[in-house]
Amino acid sequence: FRAAAGTGGRREKPHFSPRALIGSGEREAPPLLQGAPGDGRARVSPPRASLRLPFCVPVWALTPCCPPAAAPAPAPPPARHLFSDPAEIEALRRDLLAWYDKCKRDLPWRTRAATEPDADRRAYAVWVSEIMLQQTQVATVIDYYNRWMQKWPTLQALAQASLEEVNELWAGLGYYSRGKRLQEAARKVVSELAGQMPRTAEDLQKLLPGVGQYTAGAIASISYGQATGVVDGNVIRVLCRLRCIGADSSSPAVIDWLWDMANALVDRSRPGDFNQALMELGATVCVPKAPLCGECPVKQHCRARLRVEKELAFASQKLFGKATPVPDVEDCAGGCPLCPPAAEPWDSSLGVTNFPRKAAKKQPRVARTATCVLERRGCHGDHEYLIVQRPSSGLLAGLWEFPSLPLAQDLQEEKQKEALADHLQAWMGQPVVAGDLQLIGEVVHIFSHIHQTYVVYSLSLDRDVTLDPASSPSRWVTEEEFHASAVSTAMKKVLGPPRAFPPLPPSSCVPERASVPGSPCSRGDPWGL
Ligand code: SF4
């Protein structure tokens, strides 16, 4: 049994944990790690004693000394939620790794992790992939990853990049703070750690901003071979099904339990491969809606599948009038904290997808924003658009967008136009007539926590404007430059796909200028802004 964290040698009540019941002979405690904000895949909570599952076994129940007279009888451990047989654990590791060796996808970060001899470069390559993969599909990440590693193959190269460059490459990948934090952490490694990546999961999490328990475990196990588990969404799904865990899988108690289980299961000789195999299984076989149980390499260890099979057998017996009670298919008796809640029992029609379960998701906040596509004719007859930079913190920090203004809900169109005209007027330093704004339509974009509607207006300028250099950085861009800039996917939706414009007559040329010195559009800036 593992003592609670930070007991300092005091005799605390130990807790049941999957590791405790494995009997592997390994005595080291699993890493005691804490989540970091923004580590989207981490799904972590620190191993707080107060959040441990309530079926603890008191010390007196484990030792020959006399128990306190009034101590309550300990609740039995929920054996169906554990891996308690060392032979089964060995078999599961073997089956999973054999399948992974045969079926794993060929991914660029795996190739780098397997072939890069330098530990810092290897850890950096894994780190970049893990940050990009947070909340993002593998297929989407591959191209971004390859371009990133080509541009910044080392920590040192990334540390020298500007945030603008990072945002440009990250554009379209979403959750933009990830790229920013990755670069900040790279700078920290170079400036404060002599360019050497921390060598353990504990230090990675402690020393690097944006690296939480999941990312630290992934880097340490894959790059350094540290025997530490990982828990991401795929692992949660697989483990919950393997051990019929139907309680809210986002609750701290269940997450703690899963971390203990992952740390206990991880193969000691191939921890990185084991962790990747578990995630690969969740991504390709034990998928959320229609898992391929028939092809699953660990199906013989899966209690959710066992339950389904027994129910089918029972139904078949019933059909032929031979139904007998089916053992081991019911939930644990007496309000087990890992079984589905009594109000939402096992649903036979869902099969193994009864697991995992989550508390109802919080509804995203609804927001409306007026945005104005300000257009002019640039030199050579090109269409040009004005984009402005967002603040350096908050949502879409540092990205570029069309001039935009948050709107109150249910604001009438005329009022919207007036508000937007006022906003543009204050920003450009000259009158903007609300009636000149043309309503184009609405574009909906779903951020993780915001249901955002952009009310899109357009305004074509037939005169020059003097942008206020005291306001946000701004610049005129062609359509091609717009798509190559650090703009969000939402703004790309606002402009629409690249179009083939008829060239405008050169006589209508407006001199180029921008309020960002050195920006692509500051060439030939007659005002020197
Ligand atoms: Fe998932 Fe099915 Fe495999 Fe169980 S048998 S781990 S539910 S794919």
From TrEMBL:
Its cofactor is [4Fe-4S] cluster. CDD domains: ENDO3c, NUDIX_DNA_Glycosylase_C-MutY. The keyword Nucleotide-binding does not apply. SMART domains: ENDO3c (SM00478), FES (SM00525). Residues 132-284 form the HhH-GPD domain. Gene3D superfamilies: Helix-hairpin-Helix base-excision DNA repair enzymes (C-terminal), Hypothetical protein, domain 2, Nucleoside Triphosphate Pyrophosphohydrolase. Keywords: 4Fe-4S, DNA damage, DNA repair, Glycosidase, Hydrolase, Iron, Iron-sulfur, Metal-binding, Mitochondrion, Nucleus. One of its GO terms (biological process) is base-excision repair. PROSITE patterns: ENDONUCLEASE_III_2 (PS01155). It is found in: Mitochondrion; Nucleus. Its main location: mitochondrion. Binds 1 [4Fe-4S] cluster. It catalyses: Hydrolyzes free adenine bases from 7,8-dihydro-8-oxoguanine:adenine mismatched double-stranded DNA, leaving an apurinic site. Residues 1-45, 502-529 are annotated as: Disordered. One of its GO terms (cellular component) is nucleoplasm. It comes from the Eukaryota. GO terms for molecular function: 4 iron, 4 sulfur cluster binding; 8-oxo-7,8-dihydroguanine DNA N-glycosylase activity; adenine/guanine mispair binding; metal ion binding; MutSalpha complex binding; oxidized purine DNA binding; purine-specific mismatch base pair DNA N-glycosylase activity. It is an enzyme of class 3 (hydrolase). The keyword DNA damage applies. Adenine glycosylase active on G-A mispairs. This is Adenine DNA glycosylase. It comes from Strigops habroptila. The lineage of its organism: Eukaryota, Metazoa, Chordata, Craniata, Vertebrata.
